[in-house]
Design a protein that fits this description.
single chain; Rossmann fold; 7-stranded mixed beta sheet; 7 strands; disordered C terminus; binds S-adenosylmethionine
């Protein structure tokens, strides 16, 4: 679908959604990541670097969500050169908060496609927010099942937006508070998950919203819900206390950071049975977040 067609479709359905939207606590950080992708797509050179269709679909989802302040006009303004400059300036104070999010999206996309090439038949994006990976890749890989799960308030808003844009047949959206519900139970109950199949999980911008014990619990749940060779591509905060400004802002937004891990401590952060296969960015370029892939079991070795 072309950019114009996607935006037109979202525009057609926006009023309907806005009228029926109940007040809930849709994750601001999830909306902000999607909005950053719209702005980043307008930065020279970035539209070509980002996975194809990502900025356009992010824009369409934000419009269809009806969430404040993402009107058509606001999203247009967010792509102006001054808005791009402002976002780039913000990244000087908080490394990784703009282009870093783009690198994160590229990393997750590459890892999911590599896992599919290695035989994964299921993709599950945890804490998906307004991410577009499943929407973009599901039509490309019709034999792979794509699932998303998010906190109920955000999942509901995303589901409505996706319904308006058209949900691929091989994509399922689930709603669960992962700090309170066992992932294995959520997956068994949904009826669209095969426990023995080789799978790839994405936990992008999620783990630091869970306390350390919930992170370990989540990875233990992932182990018991997948077949040999399964992997998790994830991002993690390096240091819970380093970025005081961002930490204070997130606390005030009601989405405080709760856990972090240095790269060398990742295996104990995730808990028993996990091996770190890849980490990024390379040492020396310290951003807010690190990126990594973990595997469980002997067949998890990267190809
Ligand atoms: C920073 S956003 C990232 C969204 C998306 N992964 C991305 O990178 O575009 C964090 C997401 O984690 C979700 N989240 C946070 N705590 C959660 C929980 N306990 N259970 C399920 N989802 C949660 C939020 O609803 C939100 O969508």
């Amino acid at each position: 679908m072309s950019r114009a067609a996607i935006v037109a479709k979202a525009r057609d359905t926006q009023t309907l959604y806005a009228e029926s939207m109940k007040p809930g606590r849709v994750s601001r950080t999830a909306l902000n990541v999607a909005a950053s992708m719209v702005t980043l797509g307008a930065k020279p050179g970035w539209r070509e670097r980002l996975p194809a269709g990502l900025p356009e679909l992010s824009e369409a989802l934000l419009l269809a969500s009806g969430a404040f302040p993402f009107s058509e006009r606001a999203l247009r303004l967010s792509q102006r050169p001054w808005a791009v400059r402002l976002a780039s300036l913000g990244e000087r104070f908080q490394p990784g908060a703009f282009e870093g999010l783009g690198r994160r999206k590229i990393f997750m996309d590459e890892q999911v496609q590599a896992a599919i090439a290695a035989g994964a038949s299921q993709v599950l994006v945890l804490g998906a927010g307004f991410d577009t990976l499943c929407l973009r890749l599901a039509p490309e890989y019709p034999d792979v099942s794509f699932l998303e799960v998010d906190h109920p308030d955000t999942a509901r808003a995303k589901q409505r937006a996706v319904n308006q844009l058209g949900c691929p047949d091989n994509m399922v959206m689930l709603s669960a508070n992962l700090a309170r519900r066992r992932l294995s139970k959520v997956l068994t109950e949904c009826g669209a998950w095969e426990t023995e199949a080789m799978s790839v999980f994405v936990a992008e911008g999620l783990l630091y919203y869970l306390p350390p014990e919930a992170v370990r619990q989540l990875f233990s749940e992932i182990r018991s819900s997948t077949g040999t060779g399964s992997r998790v591509a994830f991002s993690h905060l390096f240091d819970l206390f380093r970025y005081r400004l961002a930490r204070a802002a997130l606390y005030l937004e009601g989405e405080p950071w709760l856990s972090a891990s240095e790269p060398e401590e990742l295996e104990s952060y995730l808990g028993p049975g996990w091996e770190i296969l890849t980490t990024a960015p390379e040492r020396g370029r310290r951003e807010l977040e690190g990126l990594a892939v973990a595997g469980s079991g002997p067949a998890a070795t990267m190809v």
